[in-house]
Amino acid sequence: MNVYSVNLHGFMTGYGFMTGWQEKVAEMDPSHRLMLEGGGLSSIFLRYPLKLVNPLFVGGFYGILISTALLPMGIIFGESSNWIGQSLKLLALTSLLGGFSLGISSIIKRPPIRLENRRRYLFPIPFLGLLILVFEAFFGLGENTSRFGLFLLIVPGPIYVQLSYAPRWRILNRIQNGRGAFDGMVVTIYSDATEDEEVVDREMEEAIGGSLGTVTFDLDDSFSD
Fold this sequence. Notes:
The protein has helices spanning 3-14, 21-26, 30-37, 40-45, 55-76, 80-108, 119-122, 124-139, 143-154, 156-176, 193-211. It has one domain (52-224). Helix content is 69%, strand content 0%. α5 (55-76) runs antiparallel to α10 and α6 packs across α10 (156-176). The chain is mainly α. The radius of gyration is 19 Å and the shape is elongated.
């Protein structure tokens, strides 16, 4: 169990916040407790009631973050009205993907995957996407370039929700509702690093080539006009 998990457990216990799923998770072995408490990002969301941090809403929140990052471009290029429409599309898309991830996790019933060791791969992707959009806006590189940049800007959030957050939320929600946390699961935790990596590779391909690859996003060529 890492230091963050110890601090979170101590804080919640000391201040009387150990209710619902927190109490049940605190009674589990260290490996399962670490898996369900999640890393820094998941722990931020899980401070709130589970109904408020449904993967559908977390996906939408990521869409809001993307829209906020695109706001300066809308202001600079005088396309604030187009920015509002694009923001609504992003919100709808990322929320839809969050709900899709929850549905998939309910069918597959697999444990969540902690992505701390893979942040170095996911973290730069949205910044690269934003950089591509900036270059497209200044140099008019074409609509396909805009689509590719927006794709890179969007994809890390759905990957995180698909691989890590949605499966974790599903298990915690079952605990909260008094149902068996791991009922119907063949594997309750990934202990073999090789198997873990294979699952990540396979589901990242599905997330990129499937759920996102089949979505066509109408990006106005507003920033290049």
